[in-house]
Amino acid sequence: MEDEHLISQAKKGDLTAYGQLIGKYSPVVERFAYQMGHSYGDIPDIAQKVFLRVYRFLDGFSYAKFTSWLYKITLNVSRDFKRKEYQYFLKIRSIKKQAEQEAETPHGQLLKDEEDRMLHECIQALDEKYRIPIILHYFHEKKYEEMADILSIPLSTVKTRLLRGKNLLKKRLEQAEKREGKRNG
Known about the structure:
about 0% strand; Rna Polymerase Sigma Factor, Chain: A; mainly alpha; Arc Repressor Mutant, subunit A; 2 domains; globular
Protein backbone atom coordinates (compact mmCIF):
# COMPACT_ATOMS: atom_id res chain seq x y z
CA MET A 1 0.00 0.00 0.00
CA GLU A 2 2.93 2.31 0.70
CA ASP A 3 4.07 1.91 -2.91
CA GLU A 4 0.64 2.94 -4.23
CA HIS A 5 0.78 6.10 -2.14
CA LEU A 6 4.32 6.92 -3.32
CA ILE A 7 3.39 6.27 -6.94
CA SER A 8 0.26 8.39 -6.63
CA GLN A 9 2.24 11.25 -5.09
CA ALA A 10 5.03 10.95 -7.67
CA LYS A 11 2.44 11.08 -10.47
CA LYS A 12 1.29 14.40 -9.01
CA GLY A 13 4.83 15.75 -9.30
CA ASP A 14 6.00 15.08 -5.73
CA LEU A 15 9.76 14.72 -6.19
CA THR A 16 10.21 13.56 -2.60
CA ALA A 17 7.90 10.61 -3.24
CA TYR A 18 9.73 9.88 -6.47
CA GLY A 19 13.03 10.03 -4.58
CA GLN A 20 11.67 7.55 -2.05
CA LEU A 21 10.72 5.16 -4.88
CA ILE A 22 14.27 5.44 -6.23
CA GLY A 23 15.73 4.84 -2.78
CA LYS A 24 13.56 1.81 -2.23
CA TYR A 25 14.07 0.16 -5.62
CA SER A 26 17.62 1.16 -6.61
CA PRO A 27 19.19 -1.90 -4.97
CA VAL A 28 16.84 -4.21 -6.87
CA VAL A 29 17.52 -2.50 -10.20
CA GLU A 30 21.28 -2.45 -9.61
CA ARG A 31 21.43 -6.10 -8.58
CA PHE A 32 19.34 -7.21 -11.56
CA ALA A 33 21.49 -5.16 -13.95
CA TYR A 34 24.66 -6.66 -12.46
CA GLN A 35 23.25 -10.17 -12.77
CA MET A 36 22.39 -9.42 -16.39
CA GLY A 37 26.14 -9.26 -16.97
CA HIS A 38 26.94 -5.58 -16.79
CA SER A 39 30.17 -4.48 -15.19
CA TYR A 40 30.12 -2.79 -11.82
CA GLY A 41 31.11 0.53 -13.41
CA ASP A 42 28.09 0.51 -15.76
CA ILE A 43 25.49 -0.16 -13.06
CA PRO A 44 24.96 3.51 -12.01
CA ASP A 45 24.39 4.53 -15.65
CA ILE A 46 21.87 1.75 -16.19
CA ALA A 47 20.03 2.52 -12.94
CA GLN A 48 19.86 6.20 -13.87
CA LYS A 49 18.38 5.35 -17.28
CA VAL A 50 15.85 3.01 -15.66
CA PHE A 51 14.64 5.67 -13.24
CA LEU A 52 14.52 8.31 -15.96
CA ARG A 53 12.18 6.00 -17.89
CA VAL A 54 10.14 5.38 -14.75
CA TYR A 55 9.78 9.14 -14.28
CA ARG A 56 9.01 9.68 -17.95
CA PHE A 57 6.34 6.97 -18.15
CA LEU A 58 4.97 7.03 -14.60
CA ASP A 59 1.81 8.80 -15.75
CA GLY A 60 1.07 5.83 -18.01
CA PHE A 61 1.63 3.28 -15.25
CA SER A 62 -1.61 1.49 -14.49
CA TYR A 63 -1.60 0.09 -11.01
CA ALA A 64 -0.59 -3.37 -12.11
CA LYS A 65 2.39 -4.60 -10.12
CA PHE A 66 5.01 -1.88 -9.85
CA THR A 67 7.92 -4.30 -9.40
CA SER A 68 7.00 -6.24 -12.55
CA TRP A 69 6.86 -2.97 -14.48
CA LEU A 70 10.20 -1.94 -12.99
CA TYR A 71 11.84 -5.27 -13.92
CA LYS A 72 10.51 -4.92 -17.45
CA ILE A 73 11.98 -1.41 -17.75
CA THR A 74 15.29 -2.60 -16.29
CA LEU A 75 15.36 -5.49 -18.74
CA ASN A 76 14.71 -3.17 -21.70
CA VAL A 77 17.29 -0.61 -20.57
CA SER A 78 19.75 -3.41 -19.99
CA ARG A 79 19.21 -4.80 -23.48
CA ASP A 80 19.48 -1.35 -25.04
CA PHE A 81 22.69 -0.69 -23.15
CA LYS A 82 24.23 -3.93 -24.34
CA ARG A 83 23.27 -3.30 -27.93
CA LYS A 84 24.82 0.15 -27.88
CA GLU A 85 27.98 -0.62 -25.93
CA TYR A 86 29.05 -4.11 -26.95
CA GLN A 87 29.28 -6.40 -29.89
CA TYR A 88 28.63 -10.01 -29.02
CA PHE A 89 32.17 -11.36 -29.33
CA LEU A 90 33.65 -8.44 -27.35
CA LYS A 91 31.13 -9.05 -24.60
CA ILE A 92 32.28 -12.65 -24.17
CA ARG A 93 35.92 -11.57 -24.07
CA SER A 94 35.24 -8.77 -21.58
CA ILE A 95 33.26 -11.07 -19.27
CA LYS A 96 36.21 -13.45 -19.11
CA LYS A 97 38.62 -10.59 -18.41
CA GLN A 98 36.25 -9.17 -15.85
CA ALA A 99 36.01 -12.51 -14.04
CA GLU A 100 39.80 -12.54 -13.64
CA GLN A 101 39.82 -9.00 -12.31
CA GLU A 102 36.79 -9.27 -10.01
CA ALA A 103 38.83 -10.44 -7.05
CA GLU A 104 40.76 -7.15 -7.22
CA THR A 105 37.77 -4.79 -7.57
CA PRO A 106 35.26 -3.58 -4.95
CA HIS A 107 32.42 -5.53 -6.53
CA GLY A 108 34.57 -8.66 -6.28
CA GLN A 109 33.58 -8.63 -2.63
CA LEU A 110 30.02 -9.39 -3.76
CA LEU A 111 31.22 -12.73 -5.04
CA LYS A 112 32.07 -14.18 -1.68
CA ASP A 113 33.87 -17.31 -2.72
CA GLU A 114 35.02 -19.38 -5.66
CA GLU A 115 31.70 -21.20 -6.02
CA ASP A 116 29.81 -17.91 -6.34
CA ARG A 117 32.28 -16.75 -8.99
CA MET A 118 31.95 -20.03 -10.88
CA LEU A 119 28.14 -19.91 -10.69
CA HIS A 120 28.11 -16.29 -11.87
CA GLU A 121 30.38 -17.11 -14.83
CA CYS A 122 28.29 -20.14 -15.80
CA ILE A 123 25.06 -18.12 -15.63
CA GLN A 124 26.61 -15.35 -17.74
CA ALA A 125 27.65 -17.91 -20.37
CA LEU A 126 24.03 -18.97 -20.89
CA ASP A 127 22.01 -17.57 -23.77
CA GLU A 128 19.92 -14.58 -22.62
CA LYS A 129 16.64 -16.45 -23.11
CA TYR A 130 17.72 -18.95 -20.42
CA ARG A 131 19.83 -16.62 -18.27
CA ILE A 132 17.10 -14.06 -17.54
CA PRO A 133 14.46 -16.55 -16.26
CA ILE A 134 17.08 -18.18 -14.00
CA ILE A 135 18.12 -14.81 -12.57
CA LEU A 136 14.53 -13.66 -12.05
CA HIS A 137 13.38 -16.94 -10.48
CA TYR A 138 16.31 -17.87 -8.26
CA PHE A 139 17.85 -14.51 -7.36
CA HIS A 140 14.78 -12.28 -7.38
CA GLU A 141 12.23 -14.92 -6.33
CA LYS A 142 9.81 -14.08 -9.13
CA LYS A 143 6.92 -16.41 -9.81
CA TYR A 144 6.29 -17.82 -13.27
CA GLU A 145 3.39 -15.43 -13.88
CA GLU A 146 5.50 -12.40 -12.97
CA MET A 147 8.32 -13.59 -15.21
CA ALA A 148 5.90 -14.04 -18.10
CA ASP A 149 4.74 -10.46 -17.57
CA ILE A 150 8.27 -9.04 -17.26
CA LEU A 151 9.54 -10.91 -20.32
CA SER A 152 6.32 -10.49 -22.34
CA ILE A 153 6.21 -14.19 -23.20
CA PRO A 154 3.65 -16.95 -22.54
CA LEU A 155 3.71 -18.78 -19.20
CA SER A 156 4.50 -22.09 -20.92
CA THR A 157 7.56 -20.51 -22.56
CA VAL A 158 8.79 -19.29 -19.16
CA LYS A 159 8.49 -22.80 -17.74
CA THR A 160 10.26 -24.35 -20.74
CA ARG A 161 13.10 -21.83 -20.72
CA LEU A 162 13.60 -22.19 -16.98
CA LEU A 163 13.77 -25.99 -17.22
CA ARG A 164 16.16 -25.92 -20.20
CA GLY A 165 18.22 -23.18 -18.56
CA LYS A 166 18.59 -25.22 -15.36
CA ASN A 167 19.75 -28.23 -17.35
CA LEU A 168 22.25 -26.16 -19.33
CA LEU A 169 23.49 -24.48 -16.17
CA LYS A 170 23.95 -27.84 -14.46
CA LYS A 171 26.09 -29.07 -17.38
CA ARG A 172 28.17 -25.89 -17.38
CA LEU A 173 28.75 -26.13 -13.65
CA GLU A 174 29.81 -29.76 -13.92
CA GLN A 175 32.25 -28.86 -16.71
CA ALA A 176 33.63 -25.91 -14.72
CA GLU A 177 34.09 -28.09 -11.63
CA LYS A 178 35.99 -30.68 -13.70
CA ARG A 179 38.25 -27.96 -15.12
CA GLU A 180 38.82 -26.53 -11.66
CA GLY A 181 39.58 -29.99 -10.31
CA LYS A 182 42.19 -30.55 -13.03
CA ARG A 183 43.85 -27.21 -12.21
CA ASN A 184 43.97 -27.95 -8.51
CA GLY A 185 44.75 -31.65 -8.91
